[in-house]
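WARN no homologs supplied; continuing
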Amino acid sequence: MIENTLLTQIFIFVLAASAGFELITKVPPTLHTPLMSSANAVSGITLLGAILVAGQLGGITATILGLFAVILSTINVVGGFMVTDRMLGMFRKDRRKQE
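OK structure emitted
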């Protein structure tokens, strides 16, 4: 069984980061915004996980890292909704131009 050591966790993080980078670079530019809007749901799950970590009775380090994760996840979710709203706004018909 694999031990849950810091080295193993760093290896998993580097592997996930490099796989994510490779996947994102292979996506055509026309699909970046729809991909981001669908990935916004994953950011919401990240936010819930960060809230759970921040609220656990653990050490002060875990609480501070959890709070930092909550802040970054919230920025990511709000930014994702703003970009999605702006993208959908491009497809709305402007009523002022029709008059």
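Helices lie at 6-25, 32-55, 60-89, 95-98.
OK
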